[in-house]
Every structure is written in C-alpha cells, then in structure tokens.
C-alpha cells in the first residue's frame, strides 16, 4: 500500500472519529472498537510475531474490553477499570504462548510484541473518555480534525524535514481553527492538540514508512489505524488538563 493511500485512509478514519464524537459516546465507542479490530488483524504481521492468530486475539480482546469498560463506567475517572482489563490482557498474552505448539520460538519477542500491540489498542479509549467529560465532544472534534489534516499533509513528497514541518503546521492550524470556531474548546487547547497530533503523525511516518512489511496489506492496515488509536491518549490528556 502506497504512502498516499495510507495517508488518505488515516485522514478518512480521523474524519469518521470527528463525526462519531460529535454524535455521541456510543457511536464513538463503536468506531473505536472497529479501529481495534483492524489493528488486531494487522499488528501481528506488522510486528512479525510468530503466532499471529493468538496475538491478534489478545490485542482485540484487550482493546475492545477496554473500550467497553470506559464506555460503561458510571462515574469519573472513566479510565479506572481499564487497568484491570489491560492486566487481564497481559495474562492472556502468556496464555497465548502456552497454547503454541511450534516450539515457542522467539518467546520473549512474541510476548513483548503482543503486549505492545495491546497497549496501542487500549490507547483508543482516550477518545471515548474525552467525549464523556464536560466539553469533551468539541475536544474530540478538534483532535480528530488536526489528525485528519496532518495525516493528509504527511503524504506530500519532498525533503523529509520540510514535509514534517508542513505536517506540524497543518495539524496545528487545524486544531487552532476548531479551537477558535467551537465555543467549547479554548484556542490554546486547540493549538496544543494540533502540535501534539502533528508531532505524533510525523514521528509515526518516520518510524514506519520504510518498513518492508508495508508492501503487504495487513501490516499497512495496522499503520493506517495506529495514528488514530494512539491520538486518543493525547486528546484525553489535553482534555483533563484544560478541563481542570
């Protein structure tokens, strides 16, 4: 999958998150769960894990369980039960290794890769938790718009440092614009979100763009959804800071 295709798909997914966040918590939770499933399918191939079905199952269960926990927790802090779900996923990562019948080669790599994928999947709960706080819907929209614009900009061709600067500028501008336009978002919050998301998009592009595995579809899908899932944490932290 080409860089341009991945960038466009990430931008589209970010736009979907923005719309879902504006509609409410349950639509956003559904989109978040779908993102987790895509990551669970593609992550084992991207990380080169030796037992893909088991690793994908652990990532998917951990991510979807965390989304459910955050969605249905009655009161703040909405992430209070997520740690329990993640702990259970870590235990499942070891159970996954016990079920292997291939000699358990690359055992440490398999466990660490599975747990790392689960961490990335759990990050998506930040979108849902943000949407549940006061003024959170607008923050979700601001972060998702910044992510969509930054993801589109990173597909530009040119010197790497210039592309990254443009990505950062475009994402910051998108966050600032939403922060100025929506009354529930402070301008400073929009700028901070844009800067954080821009740095994240540029960093992930620098990290994954030259991976040989991206010639295949499943690893490419994982790279497409990763910026969207991980950005949830940034949006939640910004929401907690500026809502305080």
Write up what this structure looks like.
The chain has helices spanning 3-23, 25-47, 52-72, 82-98, 107-122, 125-132, 136-153, 160-181, 187-208, 217-243. By secondary structure, the chain is an all-alpha fold. The longest helix is centred in the C-terminal third of the chain and has 27 residues, at 217-243. The relative contact order is 0.17.
Give the key terms.
single chain; 80% helix; 244 residues; mainly alpha
* Global structural class: mainly alpha
Radius of gyration: 18 Å
Which spans of ≥5 residues are poorly predicted at pLDDT below 50?
A: none
Summarize the main sheet. none
Summarize model confidence as the mean pLDDT.
90
Q: How many helices?
A: 10
- Overall shape: globular
Order of helices and strands: HHHHHHHHHH
CA-CA gap between termini: 42 Å
Helix content, binned percent: over 70%
In total, the number of strands is: 0
Proportion of β residues? under 5%
Give the SSE map.
Blueprint: H1 3-23, H2 25-47, H3 52-72, H4 82-98, H5 107-122, H6 125-132, H7 136-153, H8 160-181, H9 187-208, H10 217-243
Helix pairs in contact: 1-2, 1-7, 1-10, 2-3, 2-5, 2-6, 2-10, 3-4, 3-5, 3-6, 4-5, 6-7, 6-10, 7-8, 7-9, 7-10, 8-9, 9-10
């Amino acid at each position: 999958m080409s860089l341009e295709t991945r960038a466009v798909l990430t931008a589209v997914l970010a736009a979907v998150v923005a719309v879902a966040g504006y509609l409410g918590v349950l639509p956003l939770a559904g989109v978040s769960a779908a993102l987790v499933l895509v990551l669970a399918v593609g992550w084992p191939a991207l990380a080169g894990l030796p037992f893909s079905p088991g690793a994908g199952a652990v990532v998917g269960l951990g991510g979807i369980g965390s989304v459910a926990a955050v969605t249905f927790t009655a009161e703040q802090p909405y992430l209070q039960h997520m740690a329990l779900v993640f702990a259970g996923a870590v235990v499942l990562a070891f159970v996954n290794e016990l079920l292997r019948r291939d000699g358990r080669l690359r055992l440490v790599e398999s466990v660490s890769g599975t747990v790392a994928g689960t961490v990335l999947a759990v990050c998506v709960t930040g979108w849902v938790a943000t949407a549940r706080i006061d003024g959170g819907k607008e923050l979700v929209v601001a972060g998702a718009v910044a992510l969509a614009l930054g993801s589109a900009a990173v597909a530009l061709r040119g010197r790497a440092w210039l592309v990254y600067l443009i990505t950062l500028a475009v994402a910051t501008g998108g966050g600032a614009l939403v922060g100025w336009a929506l009354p529930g978002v402070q301008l400073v919050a929009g700028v901070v979100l844009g800067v954080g998301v821009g740095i994240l998009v540029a960093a992930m592009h620098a990290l994954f763009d030259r991976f040989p595995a991206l010639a295949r579809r499943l690893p490419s899908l994982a790279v497409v959804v990763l910026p969207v899932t991980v950005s949830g944490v940034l949006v939640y932290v910004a929401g907690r800071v500026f809502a305080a």
